[in-house]
What does this fold into?
Amino acid sequence: MKDVIALLKNHRSYRNFDENYELKDEQLQEILAASRQAPSWMNGQAYSIIVVKNKKLREKLVELNPSNPHMLHSSVFLLFVADLQRTQLVALKQGVDYAVTDSLNPLIIATTDASLALQNAVTAVEALGLGSVIVGSVRNQIDQVSELFNLPPYVYPIAGLSIGKPTVEMQVKPRLPEKAVIHYDTYQAYDYQLIEDYDQTMKKFGEARETKLWTKKFADYYKEPRNVHLNDYLKKQHLL
It folds into this structure.
């Protein structure tokens, strides 16, 4: 148990991989098996995983998202998609309505299922002594990514995962203070100073890719609409 907890607390994201390292089929199957064993609502398993080995496909992914070249240089890239098509086929077979657009709940269920499977994959990768990085920005070009992988209605990309043998050591990134995140029995107000203190913690940590204070980064991100095309895309996929 202590080894598992230590592994989880030691999580790092890696973006630099040995391009000559070949992931063994047994390793990939271990990762996929661990991922598929993740918890899911009602055992619905409302997700699918696309294993992307093809170099041409991965080159196209990087063309769409040039800030993440590791999608090409890693040993393998996994694309996790929320998948409500499987249960849509069940509804057709059973001859019943498929009311997944009556509320956001099915969308939340599928997103959660896919995210839990993704996290299991990350943990399995690290247990094998390898590294990975989650790529949420595949949603920035969601139409093109969906077309690239022939995603049918009721399916949409959640995030990708680059997996490989790291070539650059990373440090464990500090998290927000416990008092800013953990609440007991009820949601409690916290001192904003905790967030300002975290700004200084991250500044001292000094990760090169972080060019702004944590507060500035998210103030800038959320001050204007983002991914406004996502609603239209989800409607096109019969999910809204």
Observations:
- The chain has ten helices and four strands.
- Residues 182 and 188 are 9 Å apart (CA to CA).
- Strands lie at 47-52, 76-83, 131-135, 155-164.
